[in-house]
Amino acid sequence: MATPILLALALFAGLACSTPSSRILGGTQTSIAQYPSVVQVEAAGASTGIWSQTCGGNILTVRYILSAAHCFHGIFYEPKNRRIRAGTSIRSYGGQVVYLDVEINHPTYGANDMDGDISLVRLRGSLEYGIYVQQGSIITQDFHMPEGIPVDLVGWGATQLGGLPSNELREATVFIVKREICAERYRNLFIPRAVTKNMICASLLDVGGKDACHGDFGGPLFYGQILVGILSWGEGCANKTLPGVSTAVSSYTQWVIGSAI
């Protein structure tokens, strides 16, 4: 039987006056011991059959992972070609490997640009909890993250646009950007993009230099150890004027609980 999903029921009243995390801005190496709920999503190459990390995810229970729907979608996607690797800081090596049973992409995904980019992933077998493999906590339904709050993104993605993925787990601290500002900037692109109420924007706005990049998507956006966002999309990597965009987990908490239990 799946263990209950942990909800973040702590008081958030002090968020608006929080101070930045002590972690170094710009991206630094970290350890799975600091983020034991983070997992790698691996895909088998269509022609080679070689497994490689392509996305991230977060542990909900021993049988369920939360990730991005776009990591489990597309004309070449098949569940048999995805698996989860947990409990290791090293990309595509070590830890526990469990294969995918089925993905449950949110039914709204694909209807409005990247809105609804969230997937509940059921595993064929069960993860074994330990020091490096632990259940994560998700934010409560409809909680709004205030502007300016520091949040941490974690993953094995590229450290520069067009670069190779990181062999070691990395973290970076960014700040919540007001949704209206974010939406306006993406709306004014030559090809406009939709930033909806179900999304969180975060960056070093008008400074740049730190962001998620390819290989990080599907992974977590944390406030402390609470999952508040799922890294989803952006314009390039660490764009100075266009924030990275994550799926706001609080828009889907009730759906997650109802689908995973």
Automatic annotation (TrEMBL):
Organismal lineage: Eukaryota, Metazoa, Ecdysozoa, Arthropoda, Hexapoda
SUPFAM superfamilies recorded: Trypsin-like serine proteases
Key words of the record: Disulfide bond, Hydrolase, Protease, Serine protease, Signal
Record-annotated Peptidase S1 domain positions: 24-261
Protein name in the entry: Serine protease 4
Gene: SP4
Signal sequence coordinates: 1-18
Family: Belongs to the peptidase S1 family. CLIP subfamily.
Organism field: Mamestra configurata
KW Lyase (keyword) present: no
